[in-house]
Amino acid sequence: TAQARPGGNIEDAWQALRDEAAHCTRCDLYRHATQTVFGEGPVHARMMIVGEQPGDQEDLAGRPFVGPAGEVFDRALADARIDRDTVYVTNAVKHFKFESRGKRRIHSRPDAGEMQACRWWYEQERLLVKPEMTVAMGATAARQLLGKAVTITAMRGRAIELPESGLGWVTIHPSFLLRMPDKSRAEDAFAAFVEDLRGAAKALS
Ligand code: URA
């Protein structure tokens, strides 16, 4: 496993894990994606934030949350006064899953088998980072975090004791905000998202 050996360096263990994930064939998503988008951030981070899967731009850049959802995410983090450089940011599934429509690649949801296959990497990341607080953004991340399907509205905005130790926190996915047609509703939903992130950070201090 990725657990740092006694005397071993945790950053080296993380790098080795990342290198291994680059060649992952645990499910079929690697066949069409450009590359594995592994988590990033300090291995000693107290907070881990989990998304669903890389999008089009993340797939090309090889980094999580750098596209449109990433812009919303960055803005929310800034409003919540959380420095992204202090957080370990990753996804429940590490390859982009899409359908081609002409030249465009349209995001499609990872299925239970893909989530299960990718759970291995997620667990290895958790063994190394050992986050005190894990924020799951959206239903896919929440399912990976809690090991079962949950309703975001019923779970969001409060600390959840995780069986493996540490706290969990469920909130919406930033892409959800991008899909909201009503601007004033979207603003309210954004404010609630910021409030969730702030609450998670507060529960840490
Ligand atoms: N959406 C996600 O869930 N993760 C990303 O990295 C980008 C978009």
TrEMBL record:
Residues 38-198 form the Uracil-DNA glycosylase-like domain. Signal peptide: none annotated. Belongs to the uracil-DNA glycosylase (UDG) superfamily. Type 4 (UDGa) family. This is Type-4 uracil-DNA glycosylase. The chain holds residues 261 to 465 of 465 of the full protein.
